[in-house]
Amino acid sequence: MEYRINKYLALSGACSRREADRLIDSGRVSVNGETATPGVKVTDGDVVTLDGEPVTIERKIVIAAYYKPAGVICTTSEKERPNLTDVIDYPERLFPIGRLDKNSTGLLLLTNDGNLAEKLMRGRNGHEKEYEVTTDKAMPESVIKAMEQGVPILDTMTKPCKVTNVNGKRFNIVLTQGLNRQIRRMCEYFGYRVTKLHRIRFSSIQISDMKEGEFRLLDDAEVKSLYDQIG
Questions:
Q1: Is the dihedral of CA 216, 217, 220, 226 positive or negative?
Q2: Contact status, residue 12 vs residue 49, Cβ threshold 8 Å
Q3: Three-state DSSP class for residue 221
Q4: Which of 28, 109, 134, 145 sits most deeply, having the most CB atoms within 10 A of its CB?
């Protein structure tokens, strides 16, 4: 993995990123025996030293939860703004596990473990995602029952799901797959428009009392529960 030299030093725990810039400017940092320059990029295979002592990153698995507000795009690509890199202050780039569309809100999981992300996103593994949905008009029980059985969208039939009516215009839905704009398309099939879509749970992780825009690392019990589920 490639890092800017100041970020590499910060991730190693040797100093903060701001202090790293000062150390580089003062000539105290070297990369492969050459004095480092600001902005130079290094990889895990490069030899980085600070005052002649080797500096390395002990790569740790990171899994985090983020309460995504409406308007944020679920990508780390600089081509789309505002993106996750813009709004999350973390020294290492984390990648989203699945997506929430730009207008949707709620729980988004992020990680640097590609294996975990792939297994949690794979539809056939059946990991649940729960959403609170508000539509433009009240939805009768007959439509809810039909939605639970499966809806023909995107040239396929959605998997059976659990839908719980809350108050006519609001319902909770639990999915085990993640087709593009799935809930919005399911509602559109029956003639309803989603006005609010909010994810409250991904597998065993819940949004609980998180505040909009909040970012937090999962605790040990939450991390263990995710790995237990993927085996």
A1: positive
A2: no
A3: helix
A4: 109
d(CA 180, CA 163): 19
| Nearest residue to 65 (alpha-carbon basis) of 102, 89, 86, 96 | 96
- Decide: 203 and 128 in contact? Cβ < 8 Å: yes
Q: Position of tokens 């099939």?
A: 189
Six token digits for residue 190: 């029956």
Going across the sheet that includes 48-50, the strands are 34-35, 29-31, 48-50, 53-55
State mean pLDDT over 194-212: 96
Amino acid code (one letter) for 200: I
Q: How far is 74 from 95, CA to CA, in rounded Å?
A: 9
Asked if the bond preceding 82 is cis, omega within 30° of 0, the reply is yes
**Confidence band, pLDDT 50/70/90 cuts, at residue 102:** very high
For residues 183 and 175, the answer to whether their CB atoms sit within 8 Å is yes
Q: Rounded to whole angstroms, how far apart are CA atoms 120 and 64?
A: 14
Residue 72, amino acid: V
* Overall average pLDDT of the 92-115 stretch: 91
- Smallest CA-to-CA distance from 96 within 123, 80, 74 is with 74
